[in-house]
Amino acid sequence: RLFGTKRGIQGNPPGCVSIYNDQKSIKGINEDAISDTISKISKLIGYDTYDVTVLLVDDEEMRETNLESRGIDSPTDILSFPFHQPNFTANDNEAGLLEEPEFDIPDYYTLGDMVICVPYVIRRCQEDILALGDDNDYDDDESDVGGVENDGDRGVCGAMADVRDPEKRIRMLLVHGMLHLVGYDHIEDEDYIEMVEREEEILKEIG
Protein backbone atom coordinates (compact mmCIF):
# COMPACT_ATOMS: atom_id res chain seq x y z
CA ARG A 1 0.00 0.00 0.00
CA LEU A 2 1.23 3.47 -0.84
CA PHE A 3 -1.00 5.31 1.61
CA GLY A 4 -2.41 4.99 5.12
CA THR A 5 -3.97 1.85 6.56
CA LYS A 6 -6.88 0.85 8.77
CA ARG A 7 -6.25 1.52 12.44
CA GLY A 8 -6.47 -1.03 15.23
CA ILE A 9 -4.99 -3.92 13.24
CA GLN A 10 -1.72 -5.27 14.56
CA GLY A 11 1.12 -5.01 12.07
CA ASN A 12 -0.35 -2.23 9.97
CA PRO A 13 2.39 0.28 9.09
CA PRO A 14 2.30 3.89 10.29
CA GLY A 15 0.82 6.57 8.10
CA CYS A 16 2.88 8.97 6.04
CA VAL A 17 3.55 12.57 7.05
CA SER A 18 3.89 14.84 4.01
CA ILE A 19 5.36 18.31 4.50
CA TYR A 20 5.29 21.01 1.83
CA ASN A 21 7.53 23.92 2.74
CA ASP A 22 6.34 26.92 0.73
CA GLN A 23 7.52 29.63 3.13
CA LYS A 24 10.70 31.70 3.13
CA SER A 25 10.63 33.14 6.65
CA ILE A 26 12.64 30.36 8.33
CA LYS A 27 15.39 28.92 6.17
CA GLY A 28 16.24 25.34 7.00
CA ILE A 29 13.14 24.81 9.10
CA ASN A 30 13.36 21.45 10.89
CA GLU A 31 10.94 19.31 8.92
CA ASP A 32 12.10 16.14 10.69
CA ALA A 33 11.03 17.60 14.05
CA ILE A 34 7.63 18.50 12.58
CA SER A 35 7.18 15.00 11.18
CA ASP A 36 8.25 13.39 14.45
CA THR A 37 5.82 15.56 16.43
CA ILE A 38 2.93 14.63 14.14
CA SER A 39 3.78 10.94 14.46
CA LYS A 40 3.73 11.20 18.25
CA ILE A 41 0.42 13.06 18.27
CA SER A 42 -1.11 10.60 15.79
CA LYS A 43 -0.23 7.70 18.06
CA LEU A 44 -1.65 9.44 21.14
CA ILE A 45 -4.97 10.15 19.44
CA GLY A 46 -5.20 6.64 17.99
CA TYR A 47 -4.69 7.43 14.31
CA ASP A 48 -1.04 6.59 13.75
CA THR A 49 -1.82 4.51 10.63
CA TYR A 50 -3.44 7.49 8.88
CA ASP A 51 -1.64 9.96 6.63
CA VAL A 52 -1.31 13.67 7.45
CA THR A 53 -0.26 16.59 5.25
CA VAL A 54 1.26 19.86 6.48
CA LEU A 55 1.72 22.98 4.37
CA LEU A 56 4.09 25.67 5.67
CA VAL A 57 3.12 28.92 3.96
CA ASP A 58 3.70 32.66 3.94
CA ASP A 59 1.18 35.41 4.68
CA GLU A 60 -0.40 35.77 1.26
CA GLU A 61 -1.16 32.09 0.79
CA MET A 62 -2.63 31.87 4.29
CA ARG A 63 -4.67 35.02 3.75
CA GLU A 64 -6.15 33.57 0.56
CA THR A 65 -6.83 30.22 2.25
CA ASN A 66 -8.46 31.89 5.25
CA LEU A 67 -10.61 34.07 3.00
CA GLU A 68 -11.72 31.15 0.86
CA SER A 69 -12.43 28.77 3.74
CA ARG A 70 -13.69 31.10 6.49
CA GLY A 71 -14.43 34.43 4.82
CA ILE A 72 -11.70 36.18 6.84
CA ASP A 73 -9.40 38.38 4.76
CA SER A 74 -6.25 38.09 6.89
CA PRO A 75 -3.67 35.45 7.79
CA THR A 76 -3.91 33.31 10.90
CA ASP A 77 -1.59 30.82 12.58
CA ILE A 78 -3.08 27.45 11.62
CA LEU A 79 -6.02 26.04 9.69
CA SER A 80 -7.09 22.40 9.60
CA PHE A 81 -9.02 20.65 6.84
CA PRO A 82 -10.30 17.23 7.98
CA PHE A 83 -10.78 14.48 5.42
CA HIS A 84 -13.40 12.65 7.53
CA GLN A 85 -16.43 13.62 9.57
CA PRO A 86 -16.54 12.89 13.34
CA ASN A 87 -18.48 9.75 14.22
CA PHE A 88 -20.68 11.39 16.85
CA THR A 89 -23.23 8.54 16.83
CA ALA A 90 -20.60 5.99 17.80
CA ASN A 91 -18.98 7.93 20.62
CA ASP A 92 -21.90 9.74 22.24
CA ASN A 93 -21.11 13.19 20.86
CA GLU A 94 -17.50 13.23 22.05
CA ALA A 95 -14.79 14.31 19.66
CA GLY A 96 -11.83 12.16 18.72
CA LEU A 97 -13.46 9.29 16.81
CA LEU A 98 -13.91 9.49 13.05
CA GLU A 99 -16.18 7.56 10.74
CA GLU A 100 -14.35 4.60 9.26
CA PRO A 101 -13.88 4.76 5.48
CA GLU A 102 -16.74 3.04 3.68
CA PHE A 103 -14.34 1.27 1.35
CA ASP A 104 -10.92 -0.15 2.19
CA ILE A 105 -9.05 2.11 -0.21
CA PRO A 106 -5.55 3.17 0.93
CA ASP A 107 -5.83 6.87 0.14
CA TYR A 108 -9.01 7.13 2.25
CA TYR A 109 -6.88 6.59 5.35
CA THR A 110 -5.83 10.19 5.77
CA LEU A 111 -6.70 12.62 8.54
CA GLY A 112 -6.47 15.68 6.31
CA ASP A 113 -4.37 18.79 5.83
CA MET A 114 -2.98 21.47 8.14
CA VAL A 115 -1.82 24.86 6.88
CA ILE A 116 0.58 26.86 9.08
CA CYS A 117 1.55 30.48 8.43
CA VAL A 118 5.18 30.72 9.52
CA PRO A 119 5.57 34.53 9.41
CA TYR A 120 2.41 34.87 11.52
CA VAL A 121 3.93 32.63 14.18
CA ILE A 122 7.15 34.66 14.07
CA ARG A 123 5.23 37.90 14.57
CA ARG A 124 3.40 36.54 17.58
CA CYS A 125 6.71 35.48 19.11
CA GLN A 126 8.05 38.97 18.47
CA GLU A 127 5.04 40.62 20.08
CA ASP A 128 5.44 38.51 23.21
CA ILE A 129 9.16 39.30 23.36
CA LEU A 130 8.50 43.03 22.98
CA ALA A 131 5.82 42.88 25.65
CA LEU A 132 8.48 41.65 28.06
CA GLY A 133 11.03 44.20 26.88
CA ASP A 134 13.35 41.47 25.61
CA ASP A 135 15.63 41.62 22.59
CA ASN A 136 14.61 39.67 19.51
CA ASP A 137 15.91 38.74 16.09
CA TYR A 138 12.81 39.62 14.08
CA ASP A 139 11.83 42.95 12.58
CA ASP A 140 8.15 43.10 11.69
CA ASP A 141 5.75 45.71 13.04
CA GLU A 142 2.54 44.02 11.91
CA SER A 143 0.14 42.64 14.47
CA ASP A 144 -2.44 40.00 13.60
CA VAL A 145 -5.52 38.92 15.47
CA GLY A 146 -7.00 35.46 15.23
CA GLY A 147 -6.14 31.78 15.33
CA VAL A 148 -5.06 29.79 18.35
CA GLU A 149 -3.52 32.83 20.04
CA ASN A 150 -6.96 34.19 20.91
CA ASP A 151 -8.34 31.01 22.45
CA GLY A 152 -7.57 31.86 26.07
CA ASP A 153 -4.84 30.95 28.51
CA ARG A 154 -5.22 27.17 28.49
CA GLY A 155 -4.18 24.40 26.15
CA VAL A 156 -1.83 25.20 23.30
CA CYS A 157 -2.49 28.93 23.55
CA GLY A 158 -1.53 29.10 27.20
CA ALA A 159 1.53 26.91 26.73
CA MET A 160 2.83 28.98 23.82
CA ALA A 161 2.80 32.13 25.93
CA ASP A 162 6.06 31.00 27.52
CA VAL A 163 7.73 29.92 24.26
CA ARG A 164 9.76 32.38 22.18
CA ASP A 165 11.13 29.98 19.55
CA PRO A 166 8.81 30.03 16.49
CA GLU A 167 9.75 26.49 15.49
CA LYS A 168 8.74 25.21 18.92
CA ARG A 169 5.47 27.11 18.64
CA ILE A 170 4.83 25.56 15.24
CA ARG A 171 5.22 22.09 16.74
CA MET A 172 2.84 23.04 19.55
CA LEU A 173 0.32 24.31 17.03
CA LEU A 174 0.33 20.84 15.49
CA VAL A 175 -1.41 19.55 18.63
CA HIS A 176 -4.24 22.03 18.07
CA GLY A 177 -4.42 21.29 14.37
CA MET A 178 -4.38 17.52 14.76
CA LEU A 179 -7.25 17.62 17.24
CA HIS A 180 -9.30 19.58 14.72
CA LEU A 181 -8.61 16.81 12.20
CA VAL A 182 -10.28 14.27 14.50
CA GLY A 183 -13.34 16.35 15.29
CA TYR A 184 -12.46 18.63 18.20
CA ASP A 185 -13.51 22.28 18.06
CA HIS A 186 -13.76 25.28 20.39
CA ILE A 187 -16.94 27.04 19.28
CA GLU A 188 -19.06 26.22 22.33
CA ASP A 189 -17.75 26.55 25.89
CA GLU A 190 -18.03 22.84 26.65
CA ASP A 191 -16.25 21.96 23.41
CA TYR A 192 -13.49 24.44 24.22
CA ILE A 193 -12.95 22.87 27.65
CA GLU A 194 -12.84 19.39 26.15
CA MET A 195 -10.34 20.47 23.50
CA VAL A 196 -7.94 22.39 25.74
CA GLU A 197 -7.92 19.56 28.28
CA ARG A 198 -6.92 17.14 25.52
CA GLU A 199 -4.31 19.61 24.27
CA GLU A 200 -2.80 19.81 27.73
CA GLU A 201 -2.68 16.02 28.01
CA ILE A 202 -0.91 15.68 24.67
CA LEU A 203 1.53 18.53 25.33
CA LYS A 204 2.52 16.82 28.57
CA GLU A 205 3.03 13.50 26.79
CA ILE A 206 5.17 14.83 23.94
CA GLY A 207 7.19 17.20 26.14
UniProtKB/TrEMBL annotation:
The keyword Zinc applies. It comes from the Eukaryota. GO terms for molecular function: endonuclease activity; metal ion binding; metalloendopeptidase activity. GO terms for biological process: rRNA processing. PROSITE patterns: UPF0054 (PS01306). The keyword Secreted does not apply. Its cofactor is Zn(2+). Gene3D superfamilies: Metalloproteases ('zincins'), catalytic domain (3.40.390.30). Keywords: Endonuclease, Hydrolase, Metal-binding, Nuclease, Zinc. Belongs to the endoribonuclease YbeY family. This is Zincin.
